[in-house]
Amino acid sequence: MLEHQWMMSDKSDDDDADASVLVQTRTKTKRPPLYKVLLLNDDYTPMEFVVHVLERFFGMTHAQAFEIMLTVHKKGVAVVGVFSHEIAETKVGQVMDFARRHQHPLQCTMEREE
Ligand code: TYC
């Protein structure tokens, strides 16, 4: 019985500063960042090829694709779409792979939106 005396005098186990205190925290849900997919101009990729890329991978009509292609041709670069990181990476990969397979130097990149 003497061995159990310490249990009665030990007060360090049930103070008000213990782990059973629950704190309500705010649920702050930040939306994930978006990424711009950019098409770059060059001197060699045929205009028709760029138009085809924009129709095929970015769902543009022929008229939309032609307009964006001309913007890139004149200004050097244009945003061709805004996507999640994963979708943007996929689009860039698809365009780069398609251009390489056709031996065109067309460049496509992505950039995080502000
Ligand atoms: N500048 C190219 C030409 O004159 C056409 C072109 C347009 C190339 C857009 C790339 O992203 C591009 N043939």
Quickly list its features.
single chain, 114 residues, alpha+beta, 3-stranded antiparallel β-sheet, 4 helices, 3 strands, 42% helix, elongated, disordered N terminus, binds L-tyrosinamide
Number of helices: 4
Instruction: Choose one word for the global shape.
Output: elongated
Alpha-carbon Rg, integer: 30 Å
* Distinct ligands, ions and cofactors found in the model: L-tyrosinamide
Short description:
The protein has 114 residues and is α+β, with helices and mostly antiparallel strands.
What does this structure look like?
There is one protein chain. The termini are far apart. The N terminus is likely disordered. By secondary structure, this protein is an alpha+beta fold. It has a 3-stranded antiparallel β-sheet with strand order 2-1-3. Helix 2 packs across helix 3. The structure holds L-tyrosinamide. The site of L-tyrosinamide (TYC) has 13 residues, from strand 1, helix 2 and helix 3.
Chain-wise SSE layout:
Layout: H1 5-9, E1 35-40, H2 47-58, H3 62-75, E2 77-83, H4 85-101, E3 107-112
Bound molecules: L-tyrosinamide.
